């Protein structure tokens, strides 16, 4: 019969099995928010292509089964995150940019404030405007729709701010929205080289020349 000492030696020689820590229970809404926040961080670091159930599971330090209680698959997580971030971005734009103003200079002042906000909180804005690795089809379609809405709104502003029969307000508005989007991406990619004031000053120069 094995002695107590022999049993202890045998037990100590066995490799302890490492188990994943049990995920503390939390209300489903809190868990959903946690998983979306984790996914947002994954996008910021690896791009949308990096969003997988395994990646979310490891980043959140929970089992895959916990995720599957809330989401069907990685695409389901991604779609819900894009919905959330689009609502956030649109809400901030509506609050900061005076969409009912007919003064282009007010738009530019507000655009600079918006870019400053983007520079201060880049992760959320990158998910909507600049996910590393490129936008997938659905995200790109959302952004194109938003660009069209902004161009229509800005065109109405330009008709009053830059009157003239020969002025192609619609085309100028589309060009300015493209410039605004490109500038926002520059601010997000390299805020040191492209600080908000620099990119907005360039827009002011364009509008000044257009106004003659």
UniProtKB/TrEMBL annotation:
Domain of life: Bacteria
Family annotation (Pfam families): TetR_N
One Gene Ontology MF term: DNA-binding transcription factor activity
Keywords from the UniProt entry: DNA-binding, Transcription, Transcription regulation
Keyword Zinc appears in the UniProt entry: no
UniProt KW Transcription keyword: yes
Residue ranges of DNA binding: 52-71
Residue stretches making up the HTH tetR-type domain: 29-89
Protein name: TetR/AcrR family transcriptional regulator
């Amino acid at each position: 019969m094995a002695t107590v000492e022999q049993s202890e030696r045998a037990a100590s020689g066995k490799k302890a099995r490492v188990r994943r820590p049990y995920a503390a229970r939390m209300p489903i809404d809190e868990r959903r928010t946690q998983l979306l926040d984790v996914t947002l961080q994954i996008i910021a670091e690896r791009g949308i292509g990096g969003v997988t159930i395994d990646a979310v599971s490891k980043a959140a330090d929970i089992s895959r089964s916990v995720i599957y209680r809330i989401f069907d698959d990685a695409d389901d997580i991604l779609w819900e995150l894009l919905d959330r971030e689009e609502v956030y971005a649109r809400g901030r734009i509506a609050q900061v940019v005076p969409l009912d103003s007919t003064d282009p200079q007010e738009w530019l002042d507000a655009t600079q404030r918006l870019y400053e906000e983007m520079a201060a909180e880049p992760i959320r804005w990158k998910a909507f405007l600049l996910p590393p690795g490129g936008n997938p089809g659905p995200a790109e379609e959302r952004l194109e729709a938003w660009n069209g809405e902004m161009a229509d709104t800005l065109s109405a502003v330009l008709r009053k701010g830059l009157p003239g029969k020969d002025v192609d307000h619609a085309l100028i508005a589309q060009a300015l929205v493209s410039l605004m989007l490109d500038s926002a991406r520059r601010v997000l990619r390299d805020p040191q080289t492209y600080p908000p004031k620099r990119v907005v000053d360039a827009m002011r120069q364009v509008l000044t020349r257009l106004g003659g």
